## 1
Amino acid sequence: MFESVKAQLWDILKQKQVSLVMIFDKKGDILWHKGREIEGKSIFLGSGFSKSFARKIIATGNMVKKKNVPIVVFGNQLSESAKDLNVKSLIIIPIRKSFFLYVDSGTKEYFTGTDLEVFTVMGELLEKMIEGVMDAQEDSKGITGVSDEIKKIREMVLKYSLEEEPLLLIGETGVGKSHYAELIHRYSGRKGKFVVAEITSINENLFESTMFGHKKGAFTDAKADKTGLVQEADKGTLFIDEIAEIPVSFQAKLLRFIEKKKYRVLGETRERDAEVRIVAASNRDLQKAIEDREFREDLYYRLQVLEIEIPPLRKRKQDIEAFITTNREYLKGKEIGESFWEVVFNYDWPGNMRELITVLKRAGILLESPITGEKIKEVIYGSGYKKSFTQPLTDTHVHEPGWKEKIREDFEKGKTFWEVVKEPFLNRDLNRQQVKMVLSEALEKTRGSYKDTLRMFNIDDGQYERFMKFLYRNHLN
């Protein structure tokens, strides 16, 4: 969407002898620019453009148009910061009151009325794109909510869709980080695919191969060429989920790729280029990971150029009603009954949006209409979530019949611990007590050896450290 419009905009403007084109917002943040080199990401702190006019339009919201404004020592039209620029004419056009299109010329003495009409049409096209995105954000596939926090996030998602810098999404498990990442990719209009790198599912020994690819014979088990995730995401977006779990040994190579857009396929001597936007996510405290020497500080600051922190659902409970109302299809036409809202508002939703969606879907399948507060409590308890009510959680609430047998069968079929236990645990389909029971049963057979349980869980020895980190961070050991 935006990517194609920006490319079209620049193609047209080049024909108009434009020296610089920028899009900036009402806060002065420069979201995109093309042409002459500039410094900084802010109208107020950057350089390489006419600051005075940019500041004026932010203050007034009106279009500024000046013809034949030479930048000379005695010129009183432009700010001191613009004296050394060879700008002859500039136009700034408001886009939807929150954004502005800036165009200036270098060799062309002044823009004509026809030029202004062209720039205005391009501004209107950008405005329609922005309106379309904002309308999409209001539906169930966008960003639903009424809290101040979600309104701010909605603005940032729109703003960062225009950007090309890396983006870091911070928030607890289940808040919807992957959903926001996909929306940003969709709104950006990037030509390539949205590719997800599930860090916790990648074998540490094969990390570089998975990300960058390999040639046949590059290492012992490389029996055929393999395309890496970076190449798959060329011209698109690579979403790196749980970025804190990337092996330290690979972090420097990822940093170099982000900075240079170059990488090397294992088994090749030449470097390849890939135009990929990196969006990363973490539910961990990355500053703590830096202190523990588990995460590179330089990589953190490179990823943190743009950041969105998504608050947990318990801190924005006014969004719960808006989400349920917008997504009533999950309840399969069932009516909402007495004390339903009281129960969902009083629950802390430790699994956040993921948990809320799961509960709504189960309620739609399992419960009869109307869905009362008591009925929805049963679904929440039966799902094995941490309780936020005074009613005790009984064994029949926690464990569904046959769950142990299903896990054993999955392991016998060759499925890994990450598929059988970790993923259901993060999705709140297994609770902490159930996971501990699985571990306890395995440790009993291995006489307390965590390392020996790896074979039972279909995990290779190289993932032992990752396995123990998962247990430790989730208080399972």
## 2
Amino acid sequence: MVMSMPTLHRELSLPYPSGQVYAWHSRPGAFQRLVPPWQRVVLHSATGDFANLRAELRMKLGPFYKTWLAQHGDHQPGRQFVDVQQAGPFARWSHQHRFEPQGPAAGSTLIDHVDYALPLAPLSQWLVGRQVEATLEKMFSFRHERTRQDLERHALWQDYPRQRIAISGASGLIGKQLCAYLTTAGHTVLQLVRRPSQDPLEVTWDPVAGTVDTAKLQGIDAVIHLAGENVGEGRWTAERKPRLLQSRVDGTRTLAKAMAQLDPKPKVLISASATGFYGDTGDAECTESSPTGTLYLSEICREWEAAAEPARQAGIRVVHPRIGAVVSAQGGMLAKLLLPFKMGGGGPVGSGQQYLPWIALEDVLGAMEWLLFRQDVQGPVNLVAPQQIRQVQFAQALGHALRRPALLPLPAAAVRLLFGQMGEEVLLAGQRVQPQRLQDLGFPWLYPQISQALAAELGV
């Protein structure tokens, strides 16, 4: 008996023209947007134009990395393209992407059809076929939901001119996805790099020396400044504390001065800050109008925001998103906690009663897009979810999502011993932050509840 080749077929009806849906898929950030956050897949290289694109992917399978080479073919502009595996984990893989108009209506149907074969079939099909099928179904459910969400959010601003946007910290947790998110919307994104540029869309800068290639910044509409040394990586030694401050102040001042010198000047500088601005607020709720705190982290945030003054003085709109703990399986707090929680060793930090201002990575991206276009917004904006939770509630939600207990606390004494001042200010201090400005703007969170954010990031 000949076993038929397994297939996957999924369709998604969308209220957007087929050409618009195709354009989203054809832009540089689409691949990154379509990789589920719980998977470890990286686009290592890509050559050729979209119709003949040859991509090399690196996939993490358990402790090992597998290379996947794919080639675009059978391209019909605006209607179809096909990914064919040249080398990789499957014996055969052909993925047809089709974009079908829905008659005279403005909508369209996105169709994904995959023919594949496992190596060592039919034995492998009998052993792991159902598991592979379930994995693919889960992956394509995510892909369709991500496509729908992004198109829906971009549609709010589709009547505005496309922007040229420079981003610092583009290789970081937020920066990577923000670059992809904005390029799929049709914007041109320039990445600030601290080495000689190797691409027309790279801009060399040196925040310590206070230099930036202003010629390449000519004609930009906006700068999103995310760069700064990670405050949560290790102890704050006497040598490291000044670097935490200067990495933010120097970079912000360098970009603000450069923007003030450009002609024409960019419209907006979105210069990141953090909810640490408020210090340790206990149970007291704070909004954007609340005073600053007394912690070292508060001082960092104050100086960080103040360093944008040259741009403000030049008449450029300046926004300071005060970002809470970003929930993402790709990095940050959640990524660090996954292993101990999966092993059953997770639990609250300290008393667990400190408030934890948090926000899903996807809502950071959406909020940044709002801040780009809402010309009536300037100054601080709290980028946090509307749900206010304590650290123990986060631990319980993560344990529930992973189907693991969350009963083993990390005592405050151990936090202080292991991490010193960093542990005291980042892990044990808390802020009960209200996203007042976003609520006043009518911002629509994708994941307003921590359970929703964890489910989306972990694929559970």
## 3
Amino acid sequence: MKLLEHVGKDIFKENGIDIPVGIILSKDFDTKDLGRFLNTIKDGKVIIKAQVIGGKRKKSGLVEKAESFDEAIEKINDIFSKRYNNSLIKKVLVEEMLDIEAEYFLSILYDTESRKPMILFSKSGGIDIEENEKPESITVDILEGLQDKDIQKLVEGSGLDCDAKLVEMIKRSYLCFIDNDCRNLEINPIIRTSSGDYIAADAKVTIDDSGILRQEKFKDIEEDESSLNDREKAARRIDQEGDKSHRGSTGKTYIDIEGGEIAVLASGGGASLVAMDAIIEAGGKPANYTEYSGNPSREKVRRLTELTLSKEGLKGCLVIGGKANFTDIFETLSGFMDVIMEIKPRYPIVIRRAGPRDKEAFEMIRKVADEQGFDITLYGEEIPMSKAAHIMVQKIGDANA
């Protein structure tokens, strides 16, 4: 779950990380609330930020400065009149404009190679940091925890003198990351004021979905969907709607890829990554990134298939996965074939699956394909998943030759 900036900052505040004074306003806000807030701000100068998930807000005109009540009203209404990823702006965060002496970058995430938390720090923060600066990094032994000497090494390695207040902020940020089951925590920028204080001027926080059940504070937070298109939004609702089955995870991870031509229905995260890499390596263009797992019902797979194959410009479909231990291959592929029978695609389909009732599933699919004239090629575990992806790309090439 990705948190909106103001929600992430609330978590920061709970963990002793200083944040700017601010107020959240919706589109139907009361100007009196804004006026009362501005009266508490020195010089009445504020920064106004649309609350959306995603980057480049400033370049999109969704971050503005105002130095008076009237200017703030004008800028707030202007932001609400805009859209982000074709979605309406629902909230803005109005914050006190800080006295900036320096800006830094901090990010905490998991390093997949060492399987440890990794902390990235740069003495330069702000827009386009990822393009203009290579941050210093350290990994943390999760059993020993983050030590002051580690933070000092990190900061001084970036070419900056380290002081006690900065050490404390980085330490608190790390504890916030661990205690809240974060997958990613980024502050860009950390602002050092002229008085020597360190303040989190932004918050990009992603909570591990598996940890939400342990975190009461996140259970009632509605996930922001401003960065998703209609198909991506619908995919995320499959597990909550329809047959109400608690089995499996379907559509939770679904991303449309612009310009793609091969629909991908992958079972399990490892299979989806293998498929994407192999398709691209073979010269193909995946149309989406998705996965389903945990023995989902026929209805859930049908809905995911329907969404995936609704994309325009498809030239092929790859259904791929390793050998399942518990997933009912006949039931899941029956959900897939329900959609195929309905839309009757003329493009080639490659299926590489194995597991319980796979022979029964393949027999059913061959019969339907023969009766309806579908171009469906079936493989079990006798060939690697990467080979199936290459065959998919080759079949598209042969069809267009």
## 4
Amino acid sequence: MKRALALLFSSLLLSAQGLPTEALADAREVHFRNVKKLTSTGSNAEAYWSNNGKLIVFQSTRDGYPCDQLYVMNADGSDQRRVSPGKGRVTCGWFLPGDRRIIFASTHGAGPDCPEGPPFTPGKYQWPIFQGYDLYTANVDGSDVQAFLPSPGYDAEATVAPNGEWIVFTSERSGDVDIWRVDLDGKNLIRLTDGIGYDGGAVFSPDSKLIAWRTNYPKGDAATAKYKELLKQHLVEPMEMDIWVMKADGSAKRQVTRLPGAAFAPAFTPDGKGIVFASNHHDNQGKGRTFDLFRIDLDGTGLERITWTGVFNSFPHFSPDGRKLLWVSGRSPRGSRQFDVCVAEWVP
């Protein structure tokens, strides 16, 4: 689902013509050193480190496939290889403890074709809640694909706690789009959010004690009624989103960002004291198409801009040792709707 937001704005970004290679880095990006691209083909998104920092899992539309498939590469970008079945649409891959298996979401169980979303209408944007998405695990070479907690409706966006005990994911199994937590063996499934509205994109803090996620809660009766009606059509409108934090058991929920527009794709900083996320609040009061990375303290103070290239930047993820940041960017694009996985040394 996060991928859909990237695709919306990618069609409106600059093409590669006339853009200098210097756009790969920006002098104002003081937290970055040695910015590099790890991909050079396809349209790429949601890249995440393995637990040992040697591998990266990401999704990409390439190799003649009409929609996203799951790929793995070495940390230096070499040996990029597909690991998903090659059917349907894939999203949100994450390494399980030991880095021998990956959990991801795919629609291949519902059919071999790419599910179709709503048509793009200028000034109106909706996310499809693809009913065919279910969670799967597979070996890192793509073999032995197994369903994980299959359920009617949308199930995706799974991430794993650093302590190796839990998986959090987004599911529609309650009738709303909520965050759920489960043990790695599929036992002790619990619902962590119950507010009316969209909850998704959950990630754990480095100590596994906290969870950050993005929300789109309707405000007022009319907005709530509209949200419920759209959900019946398996759609949500995500143009207003904020980052929230809660304890790993779902208690002590609190709002972190209070910004116009959309804030999404949270990632805890290595020290666990802040969150890096993507937002367009700085572009025409959240109505613009430029997404950059920002950092904020857990109490909602200390907002700081991280990227400055004026294009799409999102899906941050720190390496296990905290020394590098992985993210997806439209900087120095190869063409329309083309995003690359980037990596840089992180300067605290």
